[in-house]
Amino acid sequence: MRSASEQTDGPGGAGGGTEAGVAGGAAAGRPEPEGHAYPDHWEADVVLRDGGTARIRPITADDADRLVSFYEQVSDESKYYRFFAPYPRLSAKDVHRFTHHDFVDRVGLAATVGGEFIATVRYDRINDLGRPASFPADEAEVAFLVQDAHQGRGVASALLEHIAAVARERGIRRFAAEVLPANTKMIKVFTDAGYTQKRSFEDGSVRLHLDLEPTDRSLAVQRAREQRAEARSVQRLLAPRSVAVVGAGRTPGGVGRTVLRNVLAGGFTGQVYAVNPALGADAEAELDGVPAFPSVAAIGAPVDLAVVAVPAERVPEVVADCGEHGVRGLVVLSAGYAESGGAEGRERQRALVRQARSYGMRIIGPNAFGIIDTAEDVRLNASLAPELPAAGRIGLFTQSGAIGVALLARLHRRGAGLSSFISAGNRADVSGNDVLQHWYDDPATDVVLLYLESLGNPRKFARLARRTAAVKPVVVVKGARHSGSAPPGHRVPVSRIPHATVSALLRQAGVIRVDTVTELVDAGVLLAGQPLPAGPRVAILGNSESLGLLAYDACLTEGLRPQRPLDLTTGATPADFRDALAAALADDSCDAVVVTAIPWVGIEGTTEVLAASLREAVAGGGAAGAAKPVVVVHVEMGGLAEALSAATSTRPAPARPRRTAAPAPPETRQAQDAQSAQDTQSAQQARDTRAAQDAPPPQGPRAAQDAPALQGAPAEQGAPEVADQAAAPVRNIPAYPAAERAVRALAEAVRYAQWRRQAADPGRVPEYDSIDEAGAAALIDRVLGERGAGQESRGVTLTADETAELLGRYGIALRPTLPAPGPDAAVAAAARLGYPVALKTTAPHLRHRPDLGGVRLDLATEQQLRTAFAELTEALGKPEELQPVVQAMAPRGVDTVIRAAIDPAVGAVLSFGLSGAASELLGDTAHRLVPATDRDAAELVRSIRTAPLLFGWRGSAPVDTPALEELLLRVSRLVDDHPEIVSVALEPAVVAPSGVSVLGAAVRLAPPAPTTDLGPRRLPSY
Predict the structure, then answer these.
(1) Is the model more confident about 236 or about 1?
(2) In whole numbers, what is the pLDDT of the chain averaged over residues?
(3) How many CB atoms are closer than 10 A to CB 176?
(4) Which of 38, 615, 640, 718 is paired with 352 by a 20 to 30 Å CA distance?
(5) Cis peptide preceding 493, ω within 30 of 0
């Protein structure tokens, strides 16, 4: 089917495809509407399937030359798929039609790299007859065209996400598209998007109709593609085929020369170049034995990664040089950016990111320490670290170079190897979120360690951390917790919730939160070398009774269940240790073992023998031994930790696909990338489906109940099975100089393993028949329409009647309350409600302060009520100041407080605690992200320290916790369904042995703010 405009003004049909194109209507000849400003919020940087970036933006009248140039580079076949007829060039009328839009009924978007178009998409609003239309028509025809050189990179999929979001914003609910049957790639773009759709065959073409309402599947597909693209972008940085160090001078000691020597000393398997303008045009120039050039352009061969170590004012020319010659990524070590704290540095940093992204490059830095990849086929040390660390199973990310140095040194001393290391500096582009995407399904990484000073997108971080933690541990230490602001150079959203709340939410997502870098290393070495415990039962054995008791006490402090320590006495030999450990590993009554050891008196050489004996016991323990973690606590036994970890340095890393290749000629590089992406498209679609469901990748390394998978690297798909299990390397046994440190690390592993088991069944969000979502939405719209103008920052507080109505729509009943401005009015109110009643003040300075005497309960008669009224006014002030009310008495129970609030950084948060001092003074409050599941609600009720008061403490009657959990879930649904609700507070909610009574409530509304983790994929804007 052809649109009306194309029937009269140009070739018909549609099509094209992923990537050539698909046709849709074009309303030619209509005058340009006025009053529609350029929608700059539609501009976005996106990561494509191959890890490169592109910029998506609206097409304007200024793009005529770009459009013509773009069309000239499209093949005749792609043009035929787009227009259903040969169409070698665009006419002036075509160019005008495709570059003039009203941004409402006619919209065009372009994907650009280096400022030039690589793909376009447009929609034209149509009516039921397929003719050009205006609002309120809610259907549009959509058309794509992708340059052949960029097909297979996922450009069309990214454009579809963005044009669909634009259409929804403009009131369009459906897309129609007409595609030639032979254009299977474009058909697949639509069918794989996850939207509800219909397909028909008309007049020799395929007619597709897409409902643009997001579905669970469309969101899952979008996130799967996001993961694949962002992971690939990080992998391209970590595993380049060639590296240029820009700023490597002739004089030893500079940053650039140091990095060059570190790259070479690490044994990088690819090609290395030195670049420095001071080298001139000397064709024979070399530095440290590698070719040296005055610019990247002069190299004349492909460069994947450039390490930039020049003064900040020279970086723009270096970025331009790299971008114009196909460099894929940058590690910017240069300082002088936003970390300086000045406006000039911040603007310089923004300009750096914009410039790099315009060329499709990603950046680590600026002010970075560097990156490391220890894979045998890479061996990249593009950092200021003097040595390439040993290969291992830990991925390490830091936002601080100094902390990165310290962590590298500590892990080295503990015998723990790394898979990769990234120190991101100001993390202006690549962040911890990107690195999590990479490590999620990286077969070389079993444990993720993160040192973070800020979270640029906490909501996304929590989502990615939850998914990653389902397959491998994620350990985080957060710096700058108490400074009140992010470090200079870090762009972060302002959060209104306390750091403790953020930590609680991260723990909910499965993140192992620790407080110090020492604890980060302690937990990391245990998790990298030991299986996850099946439970909290701990056996303790050793040759020191006192050290065993310290370990016992530490276990109790951490909530573990230790057995009575087994004292082997000071005369125990290494063989005694071996036998005792073997027995403990075979004992079904324990889940982990703590070995304590002190030096032997007058005996030399026992440290190595003891280490060998312990490793022998673990190796000989069979399946039972393989399922239990072992940690060692030693006192003044120099060399024991090194001896126990000796196997680490010789432990083979898992086979990984070789990621280096002979450099391709520049003119064929892009074509190779596109063809590679196309060749793997089918496999990637299967990954979309798996990642869409947040399922673990097939090579997921750790299952709490699958001990053999915890001993080493997961097998590569299709790899032969290991025939000789006895030849498998002995796992690393971590050693600690203090019992408290060992037990704390073990306790973190126990809690994480428990979370892993529970994460397999996260619960469900219940449906309730008594919820009137439409009625609540109508009330919210009415209130914001009447009183919301100009209140975006402060919001609108609902009146008591509006609050009762809104909560009632979700099945939350407020205890009846009537105003009592005088004693006679109080008596009349009590007569309506029925005795007994409560009399209480509602003045803001007295609300929820029973300690000030503003509440009188169980008033059973008129005389008691009048007396109470007189006492209140005499003690606290005049009635007009106190604003007293009369309320029907609720059954006796436990006073609780339920709150939900929208935080700009983390989204909607549901909180629960006991009313009064427990939550306000002691901070005994639990938190969960919205929407909460039934499991979340049950955990909320049970996770506060004062929870025993709800379950019959000291002989009191247990309260109705199922009713309390249902109330929590209803509040969660209310906030999740209506983003205009920025805060809800139910205080107190009295939980009785039967039922819950909500005595007070407050609700605040505001126009919803844009979220940072919903909508089409995009990189943080600069």
Answers:
(1) 236
(2) 83
(3) 22
(4) 38
(5) no
